[in-house]
Amino acid sequence: MADDDLPDSLEPATGVPPRDEPPAPPTPKGDLRAVSIIAIVTGVIVIAWYLFIATARTVAEIDQLPWIQIGMWVLAAVSFVCGILSLNARMARELAAAGFIAGVAAGLLSISIGFFSELLT
After folding, report:
1. b or e along 71-96 (b: 16 or more beta carbons within 10 Å of the residue's beta carbon)?
2. Does 23 reside within a domain?
3. Which residue spans traverse the membrane (predicted)?
4. pLDDT bucket at 3, cuts 50 / 70 / 90
5. What's the confidence (pLDDT) of residue 108?
């Protein structure tokens, strides 16, 4: 007898108001994809520049070589710092590892080729 008071389970619920949407979840901590991408892009630019220097024989003809070299040091520093920051990533760890490797490679190339070579003389 009590079942007669209950609504039929097969009929649509037309008198029930819709529920409020829950708020969107916050951005998780440790999402450093942008930092890792910056480290990779700047690292690739620095590595490509030093490969160009190592393979091209026309470096002496570049008029603005000291300014370009200073720019490469700045890019290598940015890549190195972003690569170190990407070690704190909790998400996209493969991308963070690639950013770290690119940052360290750019930093080491910049130190070994940029400082200890005779490019600026």
Report:
1. ebbebbbbbbbbbbbbeebeebeebb
2. no
3. 32-53, 65-89, 95-116
4. low
5. 82
Integer-rounded Cα radius of gyration of the chain? 28
- What integer is the mean pLDDT of 89-118? 78
- Count of domains forming the chain: 1
Question: Which residue range is the domain that position 62 belongs to?
Answer: 29-115
d(CA 79, CA 99): 8
Q: Provide the 10 A C-beta neighbour count for residue 42.
A: 25
**pTM (two decimals):** 0.64
The residue behind tokens 């480290």 is 39
Q: Do 92 and 31 touch, CB atoms closer than 8 A? A: yes
Domain contains 18? no
**pLDDT at residue 12 is higher than 80:** no
